[in-house]
Amino acid sequence: MSARNCALKALNTWEDTSIYADEILSDLAKKFQLSSADRGLAQEIFYGTIRNLFLVDEIIEQLRRGRIKPGTQNVLRIGLYQIFCSGIANHAAVNETVNLARPHEKSLVNAILRNALRREEKFKSDITTWPLEDQFSHSRFLIKRWEKQFGEKATRSLLKWNNTPPSVFARINHLAANKEALEKVELETESYSLGKEYPHFFQVKGAPNSEWLHEGLIYIQDPSTSHSCRLLDPKPGEVVLDACAAPGGKTGYLAQLMRNEGEIIATDSSSQRLKKTRENLERLGASQVDIREVDWTQGSCLAKDRQFDAILLDVPCTNSGVIRRRVDVRWRLQPDDFSRQAKLQSELLARVSNYLKPNGRIVYSTCSIDHEENEAVIESSGLQVEEVSRCLPWEDGYDGAFAALLRP
Predict the structure, then answer these.
(1) Mind spelling out the 3-state secondary structure of 166-226?
(2) In the prediction, which pLDDT does 64 show?
(3) For position 304, what pLDDT does the model report?
């Protein structure tokens, strides 16, 4: 299967099911044994089309009045994404996309795409005057919500950010047993290191080193996820709870900060996600972690006399800070999701904080940038807010994240 054919099949599946885009692409890439290059191209076209859905649909509307069959619409979406939003050569974009169309529709698809090429410069000029939801393919309610919280300029910057493919970052894992190999990793990644602001992190250039990943020398992780771990500042010998731990990236970093000394209880409600967590932590050499299946929405979940020096509560959220990385989020979010999540988050915070020692500390964290899920939750918690750390994509250049250090 060609990369473009895979992208089209993925787009058709995404429209017809509730399956997440990354799962669809992963399954197709395995099924059809795509090379790494073809998978990369399929991902760029598939994800890029989803990110720019309103934009390409508006172009289609202006090029072809009247009804178009869904299958043909998706072929045109893929072609127009390549013409207007990618660096792919126009002749390749048109010719290869026409080949995806059904025989009786090839002439229609060819005519529309070539008309788009003739009007390309005019379209690009006109697009800058379109409503933001069409320019950047975001729901109107999200744009209005962000403008109210962050202002128009910041919102436009956020919209642009969300429409760019994410960079890949990794954390060097100092728990790895092969210290000689670890020194080599540190030496080879020194020029890509993020410095004192994000110690142990570097930007991945090209494809991640599979051998380093397999040996647990590095872990793919955005630097924004480290805010909560460093704010918790776990000490060697302490007893720590990571209450929503899967897939284990933050748990592994906590273990590294503790030098594998002490105890970490890592819980999550999904047995499948905990299986992946266990695999990740074993590969990273985090030997002090006790993994348990716990659903914190179901009342008391650990022994009542169980108490912790420190708790990390990385709650489920709307993921509004990682829309660039999770391409489905913008299309799944609904206006009432924020209040619904905030209610759950407040309940989880109240329940988990009961397990703190009297002088203990808890870090509440999300990958949301929304006030209702972040500041509003901690302000109503009854806990003392000691320090807050935020990562705003348009200012910091990483995924959006929020973390607050709280005490009883």
Answers:
(1) CCCEEEECCCCCCHHHHHHHHHHCHHHECHHHCCCEEECCCCCCHHHHHCCCEEECCHHHH
(2) 86
(3) 78
User: DSSP E strands: which ranges in 301-374?
Assistant: 308-314, 356-366
Which pLDDT value is given to residue 308?
97
Question: What's the rounded Cα separation, in Å, for the pair 347 and 313?
Answer: 12
Is 304 exposed, middle or buried, given 0-12, 13-18 or 19+ CB atoms closer than 10 A? exposed
Annotated active-site residue 367? The verdict is yes
Strands (E), 106-186: 169-172
If pLDDT is split at 50, 70 and 90, which confidence band does 222 have? very high
Tokens of 29: 């890439």
CA angle in degrees (0–180, nearest 5) for 132-161-17: 75
Cβ(363)–Cβ(312) under 8 Å?
yes
Q: How would you classify residue 382: left for phi > 0, otherwise alpha for psi between -120 and 50, otherwise beta?
A: left
Q: What is the tens place of the pLDDT at every residue in 52-77?
A: 999 999 999 999 877 888 899 999 99
Which residues are paired to 406 by β-bridges?
362, 385
- Which of 229, 244, 301, 367 is labelled catalytic? 367
